[in-house]
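Checklist before submission:
- one chain only
- standard amino acids only
- sequence pasted in full

Submission:
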Amino acid sequence: MRSIYSREQNPVKSENRPTPFQEALLRAALLDGAAAREAWEKWKSAVDIEDLDPGSTQLLPLLYRNLKRMGVSHPQMERFKGVYRITWYKNQMLFRDGATVARCLEQAGIRTLLLKGAALIVECYHEHGLRAMADFDILVPFREALAAIELLKKHNWVPEFDFSDRVLKSFVRSRHSLGFTSPSGNSLDLHWHVLQDYCREDDDRDFWEGSHPSRVHGIPTRILGPADQLLHVCLHGAIWNPVPTLRWIADSVMILNTFPQPDWNRLVSLSRQRCRTAAMAEALTYLSENFDQPIPRHVLSALRATPVSRRERLEYAAASSPIRNRGPFLSFWLRYCWHVRSELGRGSLSRFVTFPRFLQFIWRRERLRQVPLFALREGVLRLWHQAVPPAGSAPLL
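Returned file contents:
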């Protein structure tokens, strides 16, 4: 029998949380009045502004806007303003090329939905300079993914990986997005699934159904509903990233400032359907305790009371831990878990070829029958490198 634990009895803790000084920066950028000023004083007296981590640097535009609104004067304000302007310019370029893609897809009859920074700037931040973006994220229906990829390539967008048609179909089947670079050098992430670990054909139906119309540069598109947006932001922030994942906190606060009463019942339901109540309970508790967000107690209680399997606990702990702490085995297992989930419901035969297909995918083999030979080759090469010392090294005794 599967082992089940109560969230109340066994809270899951993420390693992926801000440091005290990063938290002070977030509070200075997001809160108001005495709380924001106190956090600002704590942060500026403790850090070297010339040597900030990338995650903190991304928050400087938001800090600049909040300090300016409160009438704070400081010699570094011009520096913060400069970061704001650079962010504004880069985002204008991303939106220009992203809107071009949205137009091409719309003209081809392919629906689109903005994700992450693009959606949040349009709906919550309302200023291109406040929220840093590495790329422009746009979602298309799963069944239109291959057509959308070909359309982008036709318009001279270069994909991150140049797959053969056979491997591309396997990639789309098992993954959630593919990165592209525009002719002018800007990045776009084309998604066909919202979440990277839920990649079955109909896993996004409720996200599409709960979305609402919007526009980007006058082009029709869609945006996730507030509850869905909050879920996406929190779950994306739960995954460890070498750049400190501070933006999910700012994004969540901006969502709740814009939509103070999202459909909480829907959020709990979506979290349960995707076995993510542990991650959402911790994220919302953190926002409530550290950023004064009015998360209803019954929502936290419902999430905490949901039984959590051993696998969900381990998967969450692995995803939120630095790669160096996971080790190769746990990282491999995590990716395999996500792959297995994408294969569920695809027929009885799929159960027998799930692991070989996973190896075919990560090794980028054209055909499934190539996997055993490639595995043998890799094993022989590894044994050879272990047995034969590099030239000039000491002989094995």
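Reviewer check: The longest strand covers residues 177-181.
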